Amino acid sequence: MYKSKIILMLLIISATALVSCAQQKTAEQKQIKEKASMTVAELREEMKTDSNLVILDVRTPAELTGPLGHIEGVVNIPVQVLEQRIHELDKYKDKNIAVICRSGNRSGIATPILIEHGFKATNVLGGMIAYNKLKK
User: Fold this and answer.
1) Looking at the domain that runs over 37-135, which CATH code has it been given?
2) What distance in Å separates the CA atoms of residue 56 and residue 32, rounded to the nearest whole number?
3) Per-residue pLDDT of the chain (136 residues; tens, 9 = 90+)
4) In contact, 63 and 51? CB cutoff 8 Å
């Protein structure tokens, strides 16, 4: 009986610790997402002032030639294969990377992946839709 109570107590303590760690990780990921984003207006300013800025477009190659077009000189790695092809970005480890897609959703997924791999990445909110609206 005594051993059962000790085991139960240890299980409760372990479960509480696991839940706490999971909550902390979720909070950290949310904080990364909030800090690692910029508007298209901020992107346009960065493009003028940071000659080393790398723009990573995480849409499919077909989308780059579609109606929304693309920003000249982008690096294109679709988010679906980003983890497998991340080594292609190693030469940009010391540069700021602006991550863009169609609307900001896929770039919002790609940005934390890049940050976890040691890149200085920022999600462009609103993506190419917002970029093209601002152009007008």
Assistant:
1) 3.40.250.10
2) 18
3) 667 777 766 667 766 766 665 666 554 445 444 568 999 999 999 999 999 999 999 999 999 999 999 999 999 999 999 999 999 999 999 999 999 999 999 999 999 999 999 999 999 999 999 999 987 5
4) no
Question: Which residue of the set 101, 110, 115, 125 is catalytic?
Answer: 101
Q: Is 101 a catalytic residue?
A: yes
What is the C-alpha separation between 75 and 34, in angstroms, rounded?
Answer: 23
User: What are the extents of the domains in the chain?
Assistant: 1-35, 37-135
Q: Given strand 75-76, what is the order of strands in its sheet?
A: 37-38, 120-124, 96-100, 54-57, 75-76
- Vertex 29 angle, CA 114 and 91, to 5°: 10
Q: How many CB atoms neighbour CB 43 within 10 A?
A: 22
Tokens found for residue 132: 């093209």
Q: How many C-beta atoms lie closer than 10 Å to residue 82's C-beta?
A: 20
Instruction: Specify the amino acid at residue 85.
Output: R
The beta strands (E) that lie in 1-136 are given as: 37-38, 54-57, 75-76, 96-100, 120-124
